[in-house]
Amino acid sequence: MTTFAAGPLLLGVRHHGPGSARAVRAALEAATPEVVLIEGPPEADALIPLAAEKDMRPPVALLAHVVDEPGRSAFWPLAEFSPEWVAIRWALEHGVPARFIDLPATHTLAWGNEEEKGTAEEKKGQEEKQEGKGEEEAGASDRSADADVRIDPLAVLAETAGHDDPERWWEDVVEHRGGAGIGADPFAPFTALEEAMGALREVYGVGGHDRDLVREAYMRLQLRAAQREFGDEVAVVCGAWHVPALRQKPSVAADRALLKGLPKAKADMTWVPWTHRRLSRVSGYGAGIDSPGWYGHLFAAPDRPVERWMTKVARLLRDEDRMVSSAHVIEAVRLADTLAAMRGRPLPGLTETTDAVRAVMCEGSDVPLGLVHDRLVVGDVLGEVPRSAPAVPLQRDLARAQKRLRLKPEPMERELELDLRGETDAGRSRLLHRLRLLGVAWGEPTASRGSTGTFRETWRLCWEPELSVRVAEAGVWGTTVLSAATGKAEADAVAAHALADVTALAERCLLAELPDALPVVMRVLADRAALDADVGHLAQALPALVRSLRYGDVRGTDTHALTDVAVGLAERIFVGLPPACAAIDAEAAEHMRRHVDAVHGAVGLLGEPGAAASGGIRERWHSVLRVLAGRDTVPGVIRGRAVRLLLDDGELGQDEAARLMGLVLSPGTEPGDAAAWIEGFVGGGSGGGMLLVHDERLLGLVDAWLTGVPTEAFTDVLPLLRRTFSAYEAGVRRTLGELVRRGPGARGSAEAAASGIPGFAPDLDPGRADAVLPVLSLLLGLGEAYDDDFAGVAR
After folding, report:
1. Which residues lie closer than 8 Å to 223 by C-beta, 6 or more apart?
2. Which tens digit of pLDDT belongs to each residue from 730-773?
3. Has this prediction a pTM greater than 0.90?
4. Region entry Disordered: which residue ranges (predicted)?
5. 24-27 long-range contacts, Cβ below 8 Å, gap at least 24?
6. In terms of CB atoms within 10 Å, which of 41, 96, 341, 616 comes out highest?
């Protein structure tokens, strides 16, 4: 059966419609054209044979990007149920030429860039015009803009047919039909749709899609060229909206005039994997659909689709440990059929199946229904493309690394635990860190639910199709992941303005193991550190630098170049911190308190026994803390924190700490400053609650001060105290309450022990101490056996 008497066969479709896809296959089988023309960029003609490769599995997309600016890109996604994909596959199976006939990507990409510039200039011009004109002219401008509204052809047709839901209407008239179309005529659906679109084009013209005039002119020229070569036995698969325009026959000169002067940009094109989720409308894809997973199911299961769908839903819910039986499946199918009959639909659609699943399998709950929607209605299917597809060298190197490290890209988010002591996991870590540095956010570091040692990392992985564009963009830095990451790190170091940015970059270079980039980063770091006089900036930069030293240790990286810079940075902080903490307001004091904490942690790592920089650095830092603790011009929150840090390090005795607290909490100190001192001493998540629990003298001092705060000042200090004590765990707060109720500080430790308060006694309890020794011995690696000498030392 042929249908070329009236000219070429124009098959108007809806992109990504399974009913349209089946109808296209049936029409091509019946017509057997000599050539198939498809809406798409003609630069991709050479890529069409790759669709026959066994490694090609949709969903996939044609990716075009500007050679010199890979970030300027465009995608043409195709799923298994896309009519265009079906047409390509049919042509390859039957040895028929297939060609793309839409406007070339070289114009599309350049046109998009020109539109962005034009939109910005137009917006600026409109703003200037409206500033100088009255409300009447501004209103006329608004009305003019409203007149150019882009219409949705399917929505207009559905409304004309009396339906308020375009998706449901399209399902009823197209997607739920058999592959044979209306009756036995495979061309009837396309004839009817062409008539409908023709009526719409007569009323709405281009419907606000001004670029379509140019695209359709190019398509007509390509259609004429195919007719000259193959005669009228030409089939065209394109969006139904374009069919009336392709049926028109303006002069060749008129079509060429529309194409004259179009901007151009040199473009490269390839196939890239795509996902069902990126086909969905919620992803922002212009031709997206609401339910790619459902449409894929309709295309793959034309017989008994509802029964098969309910079976898939039941399997998913069972995998999530929900009780779903065969009886549930049978009842859900019956309910879906009943709902379709009541609503006058030829077959149950997604609405009916969803309602049935909610009522029968989910017991009315939308929580498991959300899982069904996410996993099945939308879905996370990731396509594959063959290795023979064109790719930038960086993409090929990344693919080799992924295969070598057995790290396959997957569309579903998952966590990956890495043990850096193993060669494979260490390689995975390096790859992910290098990609992050390149802006390819395949993985994001996250907090580990297991060990927090420096030899472990936890990553959250999720591969998005757009990452292919990011890889292409990163190709300007090098042809391999290593060389590209090195080049990007060097450029970022030179361009960095803040000292903290450079130290963070040094840390990332060590994590990514980029030894060739470190000399440049270190040179920039030394220059920035020498010029930056802001103590806050220096304090913010030091922790990342010291962490870099630690990461270098666990990864076996040479970090000697960092050591001198870190020590020099610490020395400058020691000199500048006391003056920087004097005479500042409460907000600045809180920021500086956090800097003090960060520096203290960094010095603790930098000054560890055996560390290259350990000589005297901790002693010098303790001297700085003593200065901070004793200066009246330093805000209370910083003085309190300095005392606490000295106490924790054993540089300050309990008696001296109690004396300093007593001085601060004396009546001569302003209540607000005293409350800030308490916040610094026992707040900030530093374990201050347990300190008060186990040292009744300190708790007694705080309690006595608090009860003596004047009424007029209590309201001012209450928010700060509430913030301090609310950070404690519930058990700590409860214990403190019990101690306060019993009167802490009113009794000595012996009286506290007599009252039954755990942990307080005048002397050491040998039995309780000995109970700890076996565990302590295991932690120290001494085994279960320990002698009396060790026990005595431990006591």
Report:
1. 8, 37, 101, 234, 236, 246
2. 777 788 788 777 765 444 444 444 445 555 555 677 877 788 88
3. no
4. 112-145
5. 24/83, 24/86, 24/87, 24/90, 24/237, 25/86, 25/90, 25/179, 26/179, 26/180, 26/181, 26/186, 27/181, 27/186, 27/187, 27/190, 27/235
6. 41
